[in-house]
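S1.2 Input.
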Amino acid sequence: MTAAPEHPSDPSPWRFSVAPMMDWTDRHCRAFHRTLSRRALLYTEMVTTGAVIHGPRERLLGFSAEEHPIAVQLGGSDPKDLAEAARIAEGFGYDEVNLNVGCPSDRVQDGRFGACLMREPALVGDCVAAMKAAVAVPVTVKCRLGVDDQETGPALDDMAQAVFAAGGDALIVHARKAWLKGLSPKENRDIPPLDYARVYALKRAWPNKPIGINGGIKDVAEASAHLGQVDGAMLGRAAYQDPAILLDVDRALFGEAPPAADPFEALALYEPYLAARLAEGLRLHNMTRHMLGLFNGRPGARAWRRHLATAGTRPDADLSTLREAAALVSREPAFEAAA
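S1.3 Output.
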């Protein structure tokens, strides 16, 4: 693991976080990630204001106490609805409410929220102000550099001005544009070029406001390098697809021992949560689907994934199935070329 620096005297709450990711960062994923890092800020999947206000709230917003610190990400553009949804989320115990101004999907655009709000910074400001008036927890925004043919400099500057003038507590920037015309949501995660320098420039313009960076960060070492320029680093797919890298977070970025010494110990820490969910009637695969990359780089990683993808998806799969899969993995962290 990376050597620990001197403990930051007052680390930002946004110093390190795992990005909100649809279909990925559900409550089971977050409980698993918490066995790897005590300090990472975890985010929910985006949930729309309509779903929060009118839908099954416990299913959408429920989480376990061990997931703290945890933020809920809301999707919407109506200040009144966002204020109500924020109040509901705060009532569930979330530590932060985040507004999505970055998702490029067609469904989100049709609802006039997500990345298309980059074109309406004044509306975003109204939304932030309404949420700030409704809750006591921090209200933050996650955005892009801009959309389509917008110039990233003015677009991002206008967004920051609107967010902070409204009392927003932090701005997390995915350091690429979103192309709403011509690219799919998946393509929008890779094709528009990254421009970290633009986010660094934003931080220089707002030295007293928390600015976080997201997009293309592959590990904790890269996150640490960004922290020389901004207040926070957010990992997305890398943290999900290779979750063991989260074992580096607490020591490298906070000067603290991680909750587990290695992936095997993290697995043992996760077992009580798995057992409780199995007892509630949940299938093992609902949880283990988030763990397939846990042993990347070790001999037996492929066998681990194969066993969970076959035996682990059966209706009767239980903790013994998980232990069988783990027994296929070497405890020596040698690279498995074919993994």
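S1.4 Remarks. Residues 263-327 form one domain.
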